[in-house]
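Deliverable D2.4 — example input (structure tokens):
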């Protein structure tokens, strides 16, 4: 079995048909299936009744058309008997003395099953009850083209050896009714829902259709493959746009332009869908009355072309980014506002370093204090220079505080740290972890004591990425009374600070934040060299953009290291080579597991996104868990 990393490439679209010309339509369908196979497609959906055309009207009652439809299906089977593609093709089927509007599910020259439409629209421009019978409630079998085939609305099609690749079918109107078949399909084990459709186009309908498909895929935690009828249908009273879509758990992966024809194609992550379902105790299983049809298919990622963003925590597009940044700042401020009001504290104490994290914490504190209609001087910003502090970061800290109008204090901790070194026998030139952590703990002591003196609370500045890596000094910057950045990853911190600077009415705030954005990320715990920062975090633990990527897919979706590695190499192709990605993935896994004890006793902080490491919220992990299984995979990549 080839490696597929849980992805299945699906396609949905229309071909140029001729109404009632079954031979022509079948040839077009077969050609599209064969072309799709060359592109790596493993599941393809065509529109409702595409073998005949949806708009045949009373011709559906003609024996000639029904026989032509059977022959059309037969010719598609013959032409695609070697194609490694499961195709869902719309056609009228006669059974039990009735005519049914069906989806014929075929694979490598055989019919896997036939699914009849359950809900027949018989209003406005639709007259389906005139010709078709709704599908029966119970599954059965029919004879079709010399085969005994499963027939019913409750069929699940599943790939042997790739159990996550499972799908069921509903047809057009089935989506629009209050209790869609897809509801039971997904509860019965379908990861994907395929919908061959023939809805006509009217003003505003495309957006409504788009909303319906996205909502269905999100509510049912499924992939939704929707094929709309288009070119070639009769325009006597209606027009058809060929609008086709592929959604995954509420996200539109691909769609066709109206009246342009062609196919929407996307790699659907069915492994991710099943992972989401397993986490949701409210997603109940209900397989009663369903039949399962197994097929064999070798699925790989040889033609994988899904776009993988380098920064999954950061929205793409300026408008979305600005909206999300605004919302996050409001959430952070709302959390802190409640804590301030509840504790009736007189001040908020923030350690300000001139770096991104402390700048963001300061901005959040300002927003919270402003919303409480209290003076900004109730915020005490404390800068604590020591061996590694540079003029640039120190001046940026002061400039920002002056521009914001908060109380600013400078407490030089050099003498205190040197005295502590003397007490414990630490050498002044010994740049060990003790040298660094002593400074971090002294800074925290200063902040805590100033908070005690002023009746305040200390606002934590550490971010989600640092917590994931354990890049915090235990009982140092690891500790606070409220950590406003606790669920904000490093790659997003930069955008939040930038957004605040861009929208601020203060030129002083803008200037200070712009220079902070240009300053390398550093704890500044080692002496500066020629006045410049000598200790750059990303030189030590690795690029934060990689670590945030690993964090997102490891924690949010529970992906194995080999899949995370596969996705990272796709996302960062041309930026980092495979060995570099592997190196930092191993580093991430080692640190993530070994540093859990720091996360097990985190201060409170607001959840603002889909990933958080609070032991009281989304992440409960024993501090002594072994990373062996994960590292074994990563080290053998």
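Example output (designed residues):
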């Amino acid at each position: 079995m080839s490696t597929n990393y849980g992805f299945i490439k699906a396609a949905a679209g229309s071909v140029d048909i001729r109404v009632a010309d079954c031979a022509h339509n079948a040839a077009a369908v077969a050609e599209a299936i064969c072309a799709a196979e060359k592109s790596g497609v493993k599941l393809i959906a065509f529109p409702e009744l595409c073998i005949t055309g949806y708009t045949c009207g009373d011709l559906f009652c003609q024996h000639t058309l029904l026989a032509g439809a059977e022959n059309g299906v037969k010719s598609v089977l013959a032409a695609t008997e070697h194609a490694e593609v499961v195709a869902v093709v719309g056609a009228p089927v006669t059974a039990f003395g009735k005519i049914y509007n069906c989806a014929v599910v075929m694979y490598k020259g055989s019919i896997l099953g036939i699914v009849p439409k359950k809900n027949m629209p018989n209003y406005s421009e639709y007259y389906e009850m005139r010709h078709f019978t709704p599908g029966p409630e119970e599954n059965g079998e029919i004879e079709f083209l010399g085969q005994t085939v499963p027939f019913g609305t409750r069929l699940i099609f599943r790939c042997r050896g790739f159990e996550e690749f499972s799908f069921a079918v509903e047809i057009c109107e089935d989506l629009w009714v209050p209790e869609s078949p897809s509801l039971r399909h997904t509860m019965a084990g379908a990861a994907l829902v395929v919908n061959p459709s023939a809805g006509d186009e009217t003003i505003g309908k495309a957006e409504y259709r788009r909303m319906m498909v996205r909502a269905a895929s999100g509510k049912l935690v499924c992939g939704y493959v929707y094929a709309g009828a288009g070119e070639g249908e009769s325009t006597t009273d209606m027009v058809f746009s060929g609008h086709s879509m592929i959604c995954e758990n509420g996200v539109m992966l691909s769609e066709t332009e109206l009246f342009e024809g062609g196919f929407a194609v996307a790699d659907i992550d069915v492994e991710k869908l099943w992972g989401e379902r397993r986490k949701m105790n409210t997603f109940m299983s209900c397989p009663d009355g369903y039949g399962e049809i197994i097929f064999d298919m070798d699925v790989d990622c040889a033609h994988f072309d899904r776009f993988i963003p380098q920064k999954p925590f950061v929205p793409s597009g300026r408008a979305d980014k600005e909206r999300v940044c605004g919302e996050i700042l409001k959430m952070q401020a709302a959390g802190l506002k409640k804590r301030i009001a509840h504790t009736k504290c007189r001040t908020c104490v923030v350690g300000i370093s001139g770096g991104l994290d402390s700048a963001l914490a300061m901005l959040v504190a300002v927003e919270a204090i402003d919303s409480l209609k209290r003076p900004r001087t109730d915020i005490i910003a404390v800068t604590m220079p020591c061996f590694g502090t540079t003029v640039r970061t120190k001046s940026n800290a002061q400039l920002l505080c002056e521009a914001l109008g908060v109380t600013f204090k400078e407490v030089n901790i050099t003498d205190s740290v040197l005295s502590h070194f003397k007490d414990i026998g630490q050498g002044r030139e010994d740049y060990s972890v003790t040298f660094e952590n002593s400074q971090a703990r002294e800074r925290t002591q200063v902040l805590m004591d100033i908070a005690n003196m002023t009746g305040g609370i200390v606002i934590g500045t550490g971010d989600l990425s640092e917590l994931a890596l354990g890049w915090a000094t235990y009982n140092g910057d690891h500790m606070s009374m409220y950590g406003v950045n606790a669920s904000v990853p490093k790659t997003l911190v930069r955008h939040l600070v930038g957004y605040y600077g861009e929208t601020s009415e203060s030129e002083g705030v803008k200037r200070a934040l712009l220079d902070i954005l240009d300053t390398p990320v550093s704890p500044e715990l080692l002496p500066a060299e020629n006045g410049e920062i000598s200790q750059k975090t990303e030189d030590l633990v690795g690029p934060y953009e990689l670590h945030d990527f690993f964090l997102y897919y490891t924690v949010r979706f529970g992906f194995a290291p080999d899949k995370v590695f596969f996705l990272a190499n796709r996302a960062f192709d041309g930026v980092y080579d495979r060995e570099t990605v592997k190196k930092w993935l191993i580093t991430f896994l080692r640190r993530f597991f070994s540093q859990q004890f720091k996360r097990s006793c985190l201060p409170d902080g607001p959840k603002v996104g889909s990933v958080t490491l609070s032991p009281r919220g989304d992440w409960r992990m024993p501090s002594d868990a072994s990373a062996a299984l994960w590292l074994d995979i990563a080290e053998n990549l």
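The first strand starts at residue 7 and ends at 14.
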